[in-house]
Design brief:
- The protein is an alpha+beta fold.
- The chain has two domains: 2-84, Ubiquitin-like (UB roll); 94-162, [2Fe-2S]-binding domain (DNA polymerase, domain 1, Orthogonal Bundle), CATH 1.10.150.
- It contains five helices and six strands.
- The protein has helices spanning 30-37, 94-102, 111-124, 130-136, 148-162; strands spanning 2-3, 8-15, 18-25, 56-59, 62-65, 78-80.
- Strands 1, 2, 3, 4, 5 and 6 form a six-stranded mixed beta sheet that branches.
- Strand 2 and strand 3 (18-25) form a beta hairpin.
- It is globular and about 50 Å long.
- It binds FE2/S2 (inorganic) cluster (FES) (2 copies).
- One FE2/S2 (inorganic) cluster binds next to loops.
- One FE2/S2 (inorganic) cluster (FES) binds at residues 45-48, 50-55, 65, 67.
């Protein structure tokens, strides 16, 4: 990470496949950087302290809470937000389609984080069991759905993604 002026960093990273170079305050969180500087509002701020998972993003393919991460920590790394999770045709990702079809979304506030968590899990573990899914989603709070439909939507997403040509 290159220091620029006192309290500033010249950040150079990839966000949703595009190179981003910005001078940022060293104190900027990744959540602030995405929402306020880049206008990527799909990443939500719930608790702001690592408890709810609404702010999850992929950092080099791993799900991380962007409220707990400084933007400068992304230097030289690859960020994917919910806006970057797409199907191969550029439309909805199979996980997003399944959530809609299963009615697993109510107010929707928690859903970007849950889809990011599901994508991270199914990338690294395409055969994830229901127990794996429950474990992955322990950091994602939903105040609306009661989780049953969310869990079944992730299981159906796993099955869809395993079909040839879905990823
Ligand atoms: S806003 Fe980051 S975990 Fe809740
Ligand atoms: S759908 Fe409303 S918080 Fe989860």
């Amino acid at each position: 990470m290159k220091k620029k002026a006192a309290g500033k960093f010249q950040l150079d990273c990839s966000v949703n496949g595009a190179r981003v170079r910005r001078e940022i305050a060293a104190s900027r969180t990744m959540l602030e950087f995405l929402r306020e500087d880049l206008g990527l509002k799909g990443t939500k701020e719930g608790c702001g302290e690592g408890e709810c998972g609404a702010c999850l993003i992929l950092l080099d393919g791993r799900a991380v809470n962007s409220c707990l991460m400084m933007a400068a920590q992304a230097h030289g790394r690859e960020i994917v937000t919910i806006e970057g999770i797409k199907g191969r045709d550029g439309g909805l990702h199979p996980i997003q389609k399944t959530f809609m079809e299963e009615g697993a979304v109510q107010c929707g506030f928690c859903i970007p984080g849950i889809i990011v968590a599901a994508e991270a899990l199914l990338r690294r573990k395409p055969d994830a069991t229901l127990e794996d899914i429950k474990l992955e989603l322990t950091g994602n709070l939903c105040r609306c759905t009661g989780y049953e439909k969310i869990l079944s939507a992730v299981e159906l997403s796993r099955d869809e993604l395993k079909k040839k040509g879905k990823r």
